């Protein structure tokens, strides 16, 4: 996701690093003190360690090891993010489900490569381990318990959004007025730029990722997150492509008819959860959910190159019709 900075913004402080398995950056506009970025990056590193599903001894690993055995005491951040995930599981009727950990591990979709899909029997076996209603939270002692052995939690569809919100809140507490947090495409902005103009965030062309932007969303405050079938995938020997957005009900990559969803919301955790949720729900159910959710808008792109923009983005999203008008058909949902 491209951020268009525009003309000279005067004093700026920026820092970037490779964290959360991606490139992250924070830019402060109207500031010159680089030490203001130390606490936010320390927080990212701290949460990167505690919220990963892959590090031995992490809280998620301990929850997995104790599934069906006993509750595990966790940090306030881990408790809150799991609590938030259950909310979206309920809203989506289970399409968003962080207990897809065993399924994600089975498919192991990362960098593009050639390999075969898991056997059907294996998919059916791990699918039985997916059920968010079997997460037991106890707020009195901040414990998390998975009731069945073999269950596990993966926060990949929510963690970056949660972390972005935590980082932005820490910047507010420091008195920062204008900031941009970009966690590998999870973008959260505050206060517009120093010249009072909005940030411009490019919406990627899902069929030529990294090689063009379908248009630009203008935003002063809020978050923009995109989920697409091109971000992580593999191809089998016969040439069939399998993307990383897995349907918990089928056990296979989603075939919802969508190839990309971009969500604009006030908080990044909401935008993060919803980008995956809407992709899995498909166009009709996705539009219905956006309509019912205050402060949320979205851009849906279908497999037949239809681009549907919800009405709240009608004035803030500028489509590059000159370059993409013959490829994509733009419609504003009413």
UniProtKB/TrEMBL annotation:
Domain of life: Bacteria
Pfam families in the record: ApbE
Species of provenance: Acetobacterium bakii
Family affiliation: Belongs to the ApbE family.
Taxonomic lineage: Bacteria, Bacillati, Bacillota, Clostridia, Eubacteriales
Sequence positions that bind Mg(2+): 157, 272, 276
Membrane-spanning segments: none
Listed name of the protein: FAD:protein FMN transferase
Database matches in Gene3D superfamilies: ApbE-like domains
Keywords: FAD, Flavoprotein, Magnesium, Metal-binding, Transferase
């Amino acid at each position: 996701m491209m951020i268009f900075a525009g003309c000279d913004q005067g004093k700026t402080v920026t820092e970037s690093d490779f964290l959360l398995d991606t490139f992250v950056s924070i830019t402060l506009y109207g500031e010159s003190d680089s030490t203001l970025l130390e606490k936010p990056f320390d927080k990212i590193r701290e949460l990167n360690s505690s919220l990963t599903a892959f590090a031995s001894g992490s809280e998620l690993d301990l929850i997995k090891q104790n599934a069906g055995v006993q509750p595990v005491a966790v940090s306030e951040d881990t408790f809150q993010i799991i609590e938030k995930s259950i909310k979206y599981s309920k809203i989506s009727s289970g399409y968003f489900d962080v207990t897809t950990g065993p399924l994600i591990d089975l498919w192991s979709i990362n960098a593009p490569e050639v390999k075969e899909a898991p056997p059907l029997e294996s998919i059916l076996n791990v699918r039985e381990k997916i059920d968010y209603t079997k997460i037991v939270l106890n707020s009195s002692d901040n414990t998390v318990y998975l009731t069945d052995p073999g269950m596990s939690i993966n926060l990949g569809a929510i963690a970056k959004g949660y972390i972005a919100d935590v980082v932005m809140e820490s910047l507010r507490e420091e008195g920062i007025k204008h900031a941009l947090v970009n966690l590998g495409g999870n973008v959260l902005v505050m206060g517009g730029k120093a010249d009072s103009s909005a940030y411009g965030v490019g919406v990627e062309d899902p069929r030529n990722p990294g090689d063009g932007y379908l248009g630009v969303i203008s935003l002063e405050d809020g978050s923009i997150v995109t989920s697409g079938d091109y971000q992580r995938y593999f191809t089998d020997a016969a040439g069939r492509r399998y993307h990383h957005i897995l349907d918990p009900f089928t056990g296979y990559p989603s075939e919802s008819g969508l190839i990309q969803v971009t969500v604009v919301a006030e908080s990044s955790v909401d935008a993060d959860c919803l980008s995956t949720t809407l992709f899995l729900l498909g166009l009709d159910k996705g539009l219905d959910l956006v309509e019912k959710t205050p402060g949320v808008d979205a851009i849906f792109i279908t497999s037949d190159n239809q681009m549907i923009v919800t009405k709240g983005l009608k004035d803030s999203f500028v489509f590059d019709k000159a370059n993409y008008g013959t490829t994509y058909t733009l419609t504003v949902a009413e």
